[in-house]
Write a structure and sequence with these properties.
- Helix content is 0%, strand content 39%.
- By secondary structure, the protein is mostly beta strands.
- The protein starts with a strand and ends with a strand.
Length: 169
């Protein structure tokens, strides 16, 4: 009876990609090997990923089988997420190691920029607003430290909100 395990215990991918999780046999089998599996982790199906099947199958005469994970490109800045696939009891094989595969979906980090490169405000006119924006929605608050320079002096010529700037989730 062949021994079955995952080819690797972990991999990291970006959003919008297809990941292949491969199981391998120690030797070819004359029978189809079926591998039930469970899925856990912090990523949510179908918001963050979808699977190509619910059972991993290795055809008779082959030594590998795979399940494909389609990672969703949702455009939302978020921390690393994981899809943890754990093998169950196989048919026509015995379990080896590793039996757990962790697929890490890389964090999506937004970029921050000013909405305008410069502006002119007359002296004594009132309040000037300098706006920073993110390249996409973030599930976490984003803190942006900033420095101020130039020929005007604080507080003689202006006052400014203290660094850092925080953009809410």
């Amino acid at each position: 009876v062949p021994v079955v395990s995952f080819s690797t215990a972990a991999q990291t991918v970006s959003e919008g990609t297809l990941a292949t999780i491969t199981a391998q046999l120690s030797s070819p089998s004359s029978q189809v090997v079926t591998l039930p599996f469970t899925v856990g982790g912090t990523a949510i199906n179908p918001d963050d990923f979808t699977l190509s099947s619910s059972v991993l199958t290795i055809p008779a005469g082959s030594t590998t089988g795979a399940v494909t994970v389609a990672v969703v490109a949702d455009g939302v800045a978020e921390p690393d997420e994981s899809v943890i696939v754990t093998l169950g009891t196989p048919t026509n094989a015995t379990l080896g190691a590793p039996t757990v595969h962790t697929l890490t979906i890389s964090a999506q980090v937004p970029t921050v920029s000013f909405t305008a490169a410069a502006q002119t405000v007359g002296e004594g006119v009132g309040t000037a607003t300098i706006t920073a924006q993110l390249s996409g929605i973030s599930t976490q608050a984003v803190t942006v430290p900033f420095t101020v320079s130039g020929t005007a002096a604080n507080p003689a010529d202006y006052t400014i909100t203290a660094s850092p700037l925080t953009i809410a989730a």
